[in-house]
Design goal:
The chain is α/β, with parallel strands linked by helices. The chain has five domains: about 5-100, PriA, 3(prime) DNA-binding domain (GIY-YIG endonuclease, 3-Layer(aba) Sandwich), CATH 3.40.1440; about 110-170; about 190-370, Rossmann fold (3-Layer(aba) Sandwich), CATH 3.40.50; about 380-420 and about 485-615, P-loop containing nucleotide triphosphate hydrolases (Rossmann fold); about 630-715, 2-Layer Sandwich (Alpha-Beta Plaits). Helices cover about 30% and strands about 25% of the residues. The strands form seven sheets. It has a seven-stranded parallel beta sheet, sandwiched between helices. A six-stranded parallel beta sheet has the order 15-25-24-16-23-22, sandwiched between helices. Helix 11 links the parallel strand 12 and strand 13. Helix 1 (about 75-85) runs antiparallel to helix 11 and helix 7 (about 190-205) packs parallel to helix 8. The protein binds adenosine-5'-diphosphate and zinc ion. Adenosine-5'-diphosphate binds near residues 219, 224 and 542.
Length: about 725
């Protein structure tokens, strides 16, 4: 090749043509550095015909500067990038940035300088330094990262380095990871488990696209069984990726993986430090990271030799990215397996209706583990009718649940109370004038977080101290909390059982993998009697001594009523129930509700999962919504409401017509303001045979709007706010 077309990592630029100097070797997929005006940019050599752009004349071409010392992106990955951009109406640049997500890995030196405390104490202690000595014991990272961890400026860290209180450590960014051993500690599988494992192993050996839905009740050994597929891929010399929905789940997973394979897998998530990121990225690209566990962002990495993807807890909606490229990692994982021809396993105890539907159509192979492993049984689930057994005034735990908590405490066993609401109370108002505290940037209430004495907006992160007086009427000490959050349940538990040791588990208390590990250790060591948690505690964890689960309010999930509200409630309650009685001791589950007859609750109480799925699938079918029809949301936002409104109207006014295509709106979004931007929405509803993305792309490409207006298309949306 003596000339190339580059895909650039900046959507505004489009592809550009360059000359290849005589002494330089490039191929499709090569990652190169090229001049752009006075700057340099990174680009990927792409098939020129893919872009519908005129060729630049040869005499105008500037030469490429350098081919980076990383493997070229393979053709299959380039096709996946193209497919993702096309399907989700995203820019190629934005998708490719997810692949090249570590600039440190592409360039930069082989060693990174990190710093750590020497152990010597300073003569002069400042509040800033105190924070450092408080928070950075045992930590080692770059100046920037340390400053962030300690919440101080870079200067404070540098000052400590200059004073000799911190020392430099040179880290080799490419030191290899230990290799997992497929035969380190294989389990003795039950017959049912063995059958499923054999099917998976065979699929891995065949080395062809084969999507599986692994549907097994909580505690049936799904992880244990899919580890057999992982082992087989490792034996074949292939790389494996396990996608997890939540960083908080990583730590217990790492331990389990290590117990089975002798060494933990390579981790990939947004919280990685620069050196770890570079090391992981390069090891992945060079095939040296054999087993990778990660959040959804690990899906687009340039694996050298990927042979298996597992999507664990595949029903989780956090696989859907809600900003930037709005893709669903579960679905793109299947596409990646298809492009690169290997098996993919979606594992869940409560599969998404979409996944079940694919299995019913025969597109996915269904593998089932219908009962718990060993002697463990599924817990018995009872509804507590709150209209019959109301809690005391201003309290939230009903007498039958209190009794069960008491019994569990007496037996020395553990309980879990689930309420999917962070903070103390979802709404705070003034007793005198009724003023409600609202976020200045969002259409949302400020949520009281009593543990840190703040009001916080859960949408934009805005915080304020609780005011001493009402800003509306000036009345002092007038605030009343309305409704419960986990912190308030924590207070109630403390009053009911002053001697019990309780732990509140939310993203506010578990913000890092280390915190999650500490929590797991505390529960395992019996240092916690009652866990009070949000959705964070519903999945993954395996605590043998946990025998009671109480769902504080089963009805909140059904409020608001979007497309998946019933499904999500069902999944959440089934998952949290699944934490009870996972070992020898049987578990009990109490679900507090005001409508025990609701189909979701009824199916759960009767243990009749199929009844719920069949009814829910039928109603989706009837409404022609996913998986039987297609949806896309168009969200128009601007800091200026008039501008957003006008753009929304212009888009709505030029809506195309086609058979089987319905377009609703524009209407103000339920979350009419978010982070200071006014929002309007349109909803596109299409039959399965309609080429929805193509229609939307052509429709929007004919329109113009001010630069300050953002128009985002959300294909297969999960959020309807
Ligand atoms: P799931 O992922 O379906 O919830 P897990 O794989 O976590 O189930 O298994 C539940 C518990 O049972 C775990 O503690 C696991 O180690 C144990 N277990 C499952 N299968 C086996 C087996 N074949 N041998 C030993 N322990 C097993
Ligand atoms: Zn806000």
């Amino acid at each position: 090749m003596n000339r190339v077309r580059l895909l650039l990592l900046n959507a505004a630029l489009g592809p550009l043509d360059y000359k290849v100097p005589d002494n330089m070797q490039v191929e499709y997929g090569s990652i190169v550095v090229a001049p752009l005006g006075p700057r340099e940019i990174i680009g990927i050599v792409w098939e020129p015909d893919f872009f519908d752009v005129e060729e630049a004349p040869a005499e105008k071409l500037r030469p490429i500067r350098e081919v980076l010392d990383v493997p070229p992106l393979e053709a299959e990955l380039r096709r996946l990038i193209e497919w993702t951009a096309d399907y989700y109406l995203a820019s190629m640049a934005a998708v490719t940035r997810m692949t090249l997500s570590s600039s440190a890995a592409l360039r930069g030196s082989l060693t990174i300088t990190e710093y750590r405390l020497t152990g010597e104490m300073p003569k002069r202690m400042t509040p800033q330094r105190e924070k450092v000595f408080d928070r950075l014991q045992g930590e080692q990272a770059t100046v920037r990262e340390l400053a962030e961890m300690a919440d101080v400026s870079d200067g404070v860290i540098r000052g400590l380095v200059n004073a000799g209180l911190m020392e430099a450590v040179s880290v080799n960014a490419d030191r290899p990871y230990p290799l997992p051993d497929p035969d380190f500690a294989p389990p003795q599988l039950s017959d049912t488990q063995e059958n499923v494992a054999t099917t998976m192993r065979t699929a891995v050996q065949e080395d062809d696209f084969r999507p599986f839905l692994l549907d097994g009740v909580t505690g049936s050994g799904k992880t244990e069984v899919y580890f057999e597929a992982v082992a087989e891929a490792l034996r074949q010399g292939k790389q494996v990726l396990v996608l997890l929905p939540e960083i908080a789940l990583t730590q217990p997973f790492l331990k389990r993986f290590e117990a089975r394979f002798g060494t933990p897998p390579v981790c990939w998530h947004s919280g990685l430090k620069q050196a770890e990121r570079r090391r992981a990225w390069r090891a992945i690209a060079k095939g040296r990271a054999r087993a990778v566990v990660g959040a959804r962002s690990s899906l687009f990495l340039p694996y050298e030799n990927l042979g298996l993807i597992i999507v664990d807890e595949a029903h989780e909606t956090s696989f859907k990215q809600e900003d930037g490229v709005r893709y669903n990692a579960r679905d793109v994982a299947v596409m990646r397996a298809q492009f690169e021809k290997f098996p993919v396993i979606l594992a869940s105890a409560t599969p998404a209706i979409e996944s079940r539907h694919m299995a019913q159509l025969g597109r996915y192979e269904l593998l089932e583990l219908p009962s718990r492993f060993g002697d463990a049984t599924l817990p018995e689930l009872k509804a507590i009718d709150l209209t019959e057994h109301p809690p005391e005034r201003g309290k939230w735990i009903a007498p039958p649940l209190i009794e069960a908590l008491e019994e569990t405490l007496e037996k020395g066993e553990q309980s879990l109370l689930f309420l999917n609401r962070r903070g103390f109370a979802p709404l705070t108002l003034c007793r005198t004038c009724g003023h409600r505290f609202q976020c200045p940037n969002c259409t949302a209430w400020m949520v009281e977080h009593r543990l840190v004495a703040r009001l916080a907006c859960h949408h934009c992160g805005h915080v304020m101290p609780p005011p001493e007086a009402c800003p509306e009427c000036g009345e002092a000490d007038c605030l009343v909390a309305c409704g419960p959050g986990v912190e308030r349940i924590g207070d109630e538990v403390a009053t009911l059982f002053p001697d019990a040791r309780a732990a509140i588990i939310t993203s506010d208390t578990i913000w890092s993998p280390e915190k999650a590990a500490q929590f797991v250790a505390d529960v395992e060591n019996g240092a916690v009697d009652i866990i009070i948690g949000t959705q964070l505690v519903t999945k993954g964890y395996h605590f043998p001594n946990l025998t009671l689960v109480g769902v504080v309010d089963a009805d909140i999930g059904l409020e608001g009523g979007d497309l998946r509200a019933a499904e999500r409630s069902f999944q959440q309650i089934a998952q949290v129930s699944g934490r009870a009685g996972r070992a020898e001791k049987p578990g009990r589950v109490f679900v507090q509700t005001r409508s025990p007859g609701a189909p979701v609750i009824d199916a759960l109480v009767k243990g009749d999962r199929e009844a719920f799925y069949i009814a829910e699938t039928e109603s989706r079918h009837h409404a022609g919504v996913p998986p039987f029809g297609r949806l896309a949301a168009i969200i128009i936002s601007s800091e200026d409401n008039q501008e957003a409104l006008e753009t929304a109207r212009a888009i709505g006014g030029s809506a195309p017509t086609a058979d089987g295509l319905y377009i609703y709106g524009p209407a103000p979004a339920p979350l009419a303001m978010l982070r200071g931007r006014h929002r309007h929405r349109l909803l596109v509803h299409a039959g399965r045979s309609v080429e929805m993305q193509k229609i939307i792309r052509e429709w929007l490409s004919k329109l113009d709007w001010p630069r300050s207006v953002r128009v985002a298309v959300d294909v297969d949306p999960y959020s309807f706010v």
